[in-house]
Amino acid sequence: MITLPTNFADIFEPNLLKEMQREATKIFVQAGGTLIEVGQNIRMMPIVLTGSMKVTRIDEQGNELLLYYVTSQESCAMTFTCCMGTQSSEISAIAEEDSEILMIPNFFMESWITQYSTWKTFVMQTIRQRFHELLRTIDQIAFQKLDERLVYYLREKSKATQSTLINLSHQQIAEELGTSRVVISRLLKKLESNKKLLLYRHQIKLLREL
User: Fold this and answer.
1) Which of 39-48, 76-85, 97-106 is least confident?
2) Could you tell me if 12 and 118 are in contact, meaning their C-beta atoms sit under 8 angstroms apart?
3) Domain boundaries, given as residue ranges, for the chain
4) The domain 6-141: what is its CATH number?
5) Phi, psi at residue 56, to the nearest 5°?
6) What's the number of CA atoms in the CB half-sphere (13 Å) around residue 39?
7) Which CATH number fits domain 144-206: 1.10.10.10, 1.20.1420.30, 3.30.450.20, 3.30.590.20?
8) 109 SS3 class
9) Among 71, 75, 79, which Cα is nearest to 51's?
């Protein structure tokens, strides 16, 4: 039987917590490690306990698009349909930092919806939140300039890791934003000259003004 975070008592009802302790397992994913791959059969639904995960969509050419981040006490809505429909994953989830994940077998993911109101609320709120984040991603691609997308990306990355120091190369950022390294380097240099951030080798220090 596993031990759950104390604040889970504020989210889930007592009987559900008991079932979670009995049926779920915990795993540890190191920073940069993969929790879910494209094409993987999803047999367990993850809830992040500590750390954060980056959820991305990858096309046939290997191009990557950042969808959203999943942080403490959150889950990935994209895995819900896979869990309930026994479908393979269409996204990848990679640890942004060392992360502890609660893994719940598919069977309980579906049965708890009708059995526990707090679980149904958690699932619906997760779907609603991720849906809004996906709309925001679409809006950025369709309506925002790349420099605006970059600033939003850096803010979200900082929020997900709870750090103003971002450990990424210009190439990695370019891949996630679907552009070239040269363009990202130019935009970052402009932000640095405007005293919005500081650039180091494979690191970016965000300043309050950003």
Assistant:
1) 76-85
2) yes
3) 6-141, 144-206
4) 2.60.120.10
5) -130, 160
6) 3
7) 1.10.10.10
8) helix
9) 71
Radius of gyration of the chain (CA): 18
Q: Which residues contact 207 (CB under 8 A, 6 or more apart)?
A: 164, 195, 196, 197, 198
Alpha-carbon span 163 to 168, nearest angstrom: 13
CA distances to 13, 14, 49, 52, 82 from 55, in Å: 28, 30, 16, 10, 15
pTM: 0.79
Q: Which helix (H) or strand (E) holds 123?
A: helix 117-143
Residue 198, both tokens: 């500081």
- Other C-beta atoms within 10 Å of 5: how many? 15
Tokens 């609603």 correspond to what residue? 128
Q: Please provide the DSSP assignment of 150-209 as one string.
A: HHHHHHHHHHHHT-SEE---HHHHHHHHTS-HHHHHHHHHHHHHTTSEEEETTEEEE-TT
Pull the structure tokens for residue 53.
Answer: 């995960």
Q: Is the pLDDT of residue 59 over 80?
A: no
